From TrEMBL:
This is HTH arsR-type domain-containing protein. Keywords: DNA-binding, Transcription, Transcription regulation. InterPro entries: ArsR-like_HTH, HTH_ArsR_DNA-bd_dom, HTH_MetalResp_TranReg, WH-like_DNA-bd_sf, WH_DNA-bd_sf. Residues 1-100 form the HTH arsR-type domain.
Amino acid sequence: MKIVTDDLFKALADPTRRAILDELTEQSEQTLFEICTRLSVRHDVSMSRQAVSQHLAVLEAAGLVRTRREGRYKLHGLDTSPLRRIVERWPIPHIPEDHS
């Protein structure tokens, strides 16, 4: 079993980073400009593109965001596979259904 890293918890701890993950869940493969716009319009988060880029770097370090270049654009997409490590470390117990 892979150990759940501190990077993963650090990435999930910040509300702005969770909002970025929410936006990438709705629409993957977004540019930095698109993410900044969606954060501003949908989450009332106003910050510089540099600040959003730093949040993306934390998410990428945790493995939650993958980036790829397409021409002059850098596209950011969601990768939820690191979240499996949390469930593997602390499995959800089976709770029998109540058939009363």
